[in-house]
Design a protein that fits this description.
This protein is mainly beta. The chain contains no helices and ten strands. β7 and β8 form a beta hairpin. The radius of gyration is 13 Å and the shape is globular. About 25% of the residues are buried.
Length: about 110
Amino acid sequence: QVQLVESGGGLVQPGGSLRLSCTTSISIFYAMAWYRQAPGKEREWVARIARDGSTNYKDSVKGRFTLSRDNAKNILYLQMNSLKPEDTALYYCNGYPPLDAWGQGALVTVSS
């Protein structure tokens, strides 16, 4: 009985910013991650946070994306800055490694 609800997506011009939110029932004692899937491509993780709060990022988003977690409210955030057209994708949150169930995702479109 897992809850995964992403929100905050939208249409942004290159160089713009967005903040995604994820409300989840997954325990704060599990590592979490943001994933994305671009059209015609496989889903990949882009940012993850370990149980101790440490974070890791794919090189493609490092320095532009910031993952944070509100342990009290159990909400996961992804701050995305300096967005590029190649960031266009459906963004999902899930455990790391992910559970079999996925939410609806948040669509991020970066275009001029």
